[in-house]
Amino acid sequence: MKYLELYLRKVFTVDLRALAVMRIWLAGIILTDLAIRASDMEAHYSNMGVLPLHVLHQHLWLPHFFSLHTLSGLWQVQLILLYWLPCLRFLCC
How many CA atoms lie within 13 A of 93 on its CB side? Predict the structure, then answer.
């Protein structure tokens, strides 16, 4: 029984170096995605873009819905919501 336990510990151990490399790659992918999204900030996330807030509220919005992204149609506010608030969340935890 002791040999089985030793074998299972050897087989199912976690390589911390592999986890560290995976976290670095994942962070790189997320940062690349955010950089790509930043180039289309005004076209997709502002009132000058695809779906202005007044059209959203006229046709698709119900009174019990809530989203921080509907507080303003300025791309600068969306930039703060998309990039800086998640950074603050990780700093606080």
Answer: 6
The pair of structure tokens assigned to 9 is 């510990």
Q: Which residues contact 50 (CB under 8 A, 6 or more apart)?
A: 43, 44
Q: Are 73 and 46 in contact (CB under 8 A)?
A: yes
- Using CA atoms, how far apart are residues 12 and 3, in angstroms rounded to an integer? 14
- The predicted model scores a pTM of 0.58
pLDDT band of 46, cuts 50, 70, 90: confident
User: Helices (H), strands (E): how many in the chain?
Assistant: 6, 0
- Our measurement of the distance from residue 2's CA atom to the centroid of its chain's CA atoms, rounded to an integer in Å, reads 45
